[in-house]
Write a structure and sequence with these properties.
Residues 308-425 form the GH3 C-terminal domain. It holds the Pfam family GH3. It comes from Panicum miliaceum (Proso millet). By secondary structure, this protein is an alpha+beta fold. The protein is 29% helix and 23% strand. It folds into three domains: 3-192, no CATH class; 217-290, no CATH class; 304-347 and 356-442, no CATH class. The strands form five sheets. The chain has an eight-stranded antiparallel β-sheet, with no helix packed on it. The protein has a four-stranded parallel β-sheet with strand order 1-4-5-6. β13 and β14 (282-290) form a beta hairpin. The model is unreliable at 349-355 and 452-463 (pLDDT under 50).
């Protein structure tokens, strides 16, 4: 897809993309194993395409995540006026890059002022590659200090990279909850992404990449694999229920099943898609959720989309949810949902983590609003049967989710492909989250029956 159809002037600049590889491992039989993106970044095809990015190939191929990020950030800053688009694979990765700048801007500015890379980057190939870009530039160093030291990070992307025309990153599925924060940092730049891909195979394209993130739909390309669809509204999931691409119905939800050229046969990818319409005769799909991302105490089943709605209550208080995850707590009976929120300030006056001006009763109402968004089954179990205790939000200290990323990477996860799990069950992760809780809040009332007009917004308009 040619971006020049949608954005003018891209040919006059380059892209700042934060891309990462993962170290290779070997199977018991001795075959090399690595993530698909690592294979792509090491391919000849990518080597020829990498000259359109600010990051030198050696920095992208560095397996040390810190050194790779530092080198890519330095090179992006040195070429700030050439940057016309900024991106990562996943939105969470772009936010991590901005947080990295927040944490290390002083050292980065010092490197640029003196034209010498910090010793924190020790990989010889990376240092040599950056040396070809890094030059002594006291004026640029002062710009970085001025923009990063005043405590106001609204629109920081356009202030540091003033010619940026759009942000290129995945904003569907679990990434959708990052859109308000990304808009805060991006100065309301358009957020676009064209490709719908998975580890199993490429899947389709977003033919309207500059649409609002909430309206993103993908057109499946039938030459990429053989696609079948399993209706999600059936009682059983059997091969007999599979629907051909040409036979899906508008408005219905399906789980994607692929048969690939690589040898996978009727493989359930785990993505649940809703048919939103058609491009000519080709169906267009919106990503709804991952089929396994569910919370359940009893007969209830809650997906990630239902946990994202309450954060709107925080906006009038100058705060936003930077990241979240959840789990079911069954240490007491009955069990209940626990949602971990890391907050951030969206105004310069807010306190660390964005929590100083958010009253406890507002966070309590967020618990209730979240319960209001859940299913009828949840309401019956919570209100009628008393089989579920009130939902709980636990606010964690700043940088908690950065520690979660570090924990995952230390156990072999890929920095570039890591996505925060929206439901956690691993004891080490739960212990980390619980060790950083600063406050705990519970739903103050019983949720209204789904579909009634008496919502938390009606009861608490002053919010």
């Amino acid at each position: 897809m040619r971006w020049t159809r949608f954005v003018c002037g891209l040919e006059k600049g380059t892209g700042l993309y934060f891309l990462f590889v993962r170290s290779e491992t070997k199977t018991p039989s001795g075959l090399p194993a690595r993530p698909v993106l690592t294979s792509y970044y090491k391919s000849d095809h990518f080597k020829h395409a990498s000259n359109t990015f600010t990051s030198p190939l050696a920095a992208i191929l560095c397996a040390d995540v810190f050194q790779s990020m530092y080198a890519q950030m330095v090179c992006g800053l040195c070429q700030r006026h050439r940057v016309v688009r900024v991106g990562t694979v996943f939105t969470s990765g772009l936010l991590r890059a901005i947080q990295f700048l927040h944490q290390h801007w002083e050292q980065l500015a010092a490197d640029i002022e003196h034209g010498e890379l910090s010793p924190c980057v020790s990989e010889p190939l990376v240092r040599a590659a950056v040396a070809g870009i890094l030059r002594t530039d006291p004026r640029l160093a002062q710009v970085i200090r001025t923009e990063c030291s005043n405590g106001d990070w609204a629109g920081i992307v356009t202030r540091i990279w003033p010619n940026t025309k759009y942000l290129d990153t995945i904003v569907t599925g679990s990434m959708a909850q990052y859109v308000p924060i990304l808009s805060y940092y991006g100065g309301d730049l358009p957020i676009a992404f064209t490709k719908y891909v998975s580890s199993e195979c490429p899947l389709g394209l977003n033919l309207h990449p500059m649409c609002d993130p909430s309206e993103v739909s993908y057109t499946i390309l039938p030459n990429l694999a053989y696609f079948e669809f399993l209706p999600t509204d059936g009682a059983a999931a059997t091969a007999a229920e599979l629907v051909e691409l040409a036979d899906v119905e508008a408005g219905r939800e399906y789980e994607l099943v692929v048969t690939t050229y690589g040898g996978l046969s009727r493989y359930r990818v785990g993505d649940v898609l809703r048919v939103t319409g058609f491009h000519n005769a080709a169906p267009r799909f919106r990503f709804v959720r991952r089929s396994g991302a569910l919370l359940s105490v009893d007969a209830d089943k809650t997906d990630e989309a239902e946990l994202q709605r309450a954060s709107a209550l925080l906006r009038p208080h100058g705060a936003a949810v930077l990241d979240y995850t959840s789990r079911v707590c069954t240490m007491t009976l009955p069990g209940h949902y626990v949602v971990y929120w890391e907050l951030m300030a969206t105004t310069q006056q807010e306190g660390a983590g964005g929590t100083r001006s958010v009253d406890s009763d507002v966070l309590d109402r967020c618990c209730l609003e979240m319960e209001e968004a859940l299913s009828y089954v949840y309401w019956v179990l919570r209100v009628v049967d008393g089989a579920i205790r009130p939902l709980e939000i636990r606010v964690v200290r700043p940088d908690t989710f950065e520690e979660l990323v570090s924990l995952a990477v230390s156990h072999g996860a890929s920095m570039g492909q890591y996505k925060v799990p929206r439901c956690v069950t691993v004891s080490a992760v739960i212990q980390l989250l619980d060790s950083r809780v600063v406050s705990s809040h519970f739903s103050p009332a019983l949720p209204c029956r789904p579909g009634t007009v008496d919502s938390v917004f009606n009861r608490a308009e002053c919010c």
